[in-house]
Amino acid sequence: MRRKIPESTLPKIKRSQMITAEGLQKLRDEHDHLSRVERPDVTAKVSWAASLGDRSENADYHYNKKRLREIDNRIRYLCKCVDDLKVINYHPSQEGKVMFGAWVEIKNEEKGLQNRFRIVGYEELIGNKDYISMDSPMAKALLDKTVGDEAIVKTKMGDFVWKILKIEYQN
To answer: What radius of gyration do the chain's Cα atoms show?
Structure first.
C-alpha cells in the first residue's frame, strides 16, 4: 500500500499565477459541477449505504466516503486557485511577439521536428496535450521573440535550437 507524502515535506515549486480567461472559466465550471452535481450525488450514495447497517464491511459506504473526501479536497483547491490566479487577457500590443496565451509554431532544423502549442499557466495543462506551461524551459526561451527568431532551449540532454515559424493569439 502506498502512503501519501505530506505536502509540507514536498519542495515548494514556484509557479506563475497567470491564467487565460478560458482556463479560469474551465476551473469555475469544474467547481460548479463538483458542488452542484457530483457532491450531492455521492452524498446521497453515502447516506443510502449507511442506512444498510453495518458499515465495517460495506464497500459502497467506504468507496463513496473516499470519493466524497476527494471531491471536497478538489473543491477547496479550486476555491484557493480561483482566488490566487490572475487572468491575462490578450492585448493588441502582444501581436507579433511570443507572450502569454500565444499559439506558437516552431521548427528544429537539425532534428527535423515541428511543434505547435499554446503557452498558458500551470492550471490549464491538465487535459490539453498541445499546451505548455509558462514556467517551462521552452516557454521561457521563446518569450518576447518574433517570427523568424531562433530560441535556444537548454535541457539536460543538451541545447536545442528552435526557429519560430508562426505566432497567433485567440481573441
So the answer is: 22
